[in-house]
Write a structure and sequence with these properties.
Elements lengths: L15 H4 L7 H6 L9 E5 L6 E7 L3 E2 L4 E2 L5 H4 L11 H4 L8 H6 L9 H4 L4 H4 L8 E2 L12 E2 L4
The structure holds iron/sulfur cluster.
InterPro entries: Puta_zinc/iron-chelating_dom (IPR005358), UCP006173 (IPR008228)
């Protein structure tokens, strides 16, 4: 996701994410919900039996670990056919694949944002300090697909 700054709210006003449904947010509001954790760019495995999703500490080839952003955001779907485009129209369908910390998933499930979210903390680095930001993941071209189960991360969802 790319983040744009939404218009500042009046000091006493309820923040927009508590008052505005995802589908009615402005583009800037929607973009600012992304905390930049990078977790959605990690590869995932779904258990065929129970449908649970596990994350591997292996990132998409387009992911830039320095910025924790997609390195080809505008062209990501063309370059990675399996990339799912997050939008107000797709969030309900894909939220169960998103990390439990993701603001889009939290709001789609009617839950509050965490205090470390930059919209609350006012500091983008609070995501890293909270231990939520992706760190030390390997690029997918370095890990054989059959070895992904050896790289699963505990407790992300
Ligand atoms: S998991 Fe959610 S908050 Fe984190 S980078 Fe992806 S869209 Fe943004």
């Amino acid at each position: 996701m790319t983040a744009e700054r939404p218009s500042p709210a009046a000091p006493d006003a309820e923040p927009f994410w508590r008052t505005t449904p995802l589908a009615r947010m402005t583009r800037a509001q929607w973009g600012s919900l992304c905390d930049g954790c990078g977790r959605c760019c990690l590869l995932k495995l779904e258990d065929e039996d129970d449908g649970t999703v596990a994350y591997a500490n292996v990132h998409c080839r387009l992911f830039d670990p320095e910025t924790r952003r997609c390195g080809a955001y505008a062209r990501r779907k063309a370059l990675v056919s399996g990339c799912v485009i997050l939008s107000p129209q797709t969030i309900d369908e894909i939220k169960d694949w998103m990390p439990a910390t993701c603001a889009y998933r939290l709001l789609a499930e009617g839950k509050p944002l965490f205090d470390w979210h930059p919209l609350i903390s006012g500091d983008p680095e609070s995501v890293r300090r909270a231990g939520v930001a992706v760190q030390g993941s390997a690029p997918e071209y370095e890990v054989d697909e059959d070895d992904l189960p050896d790289h699963l991360i505990e407790g992300m969802l």
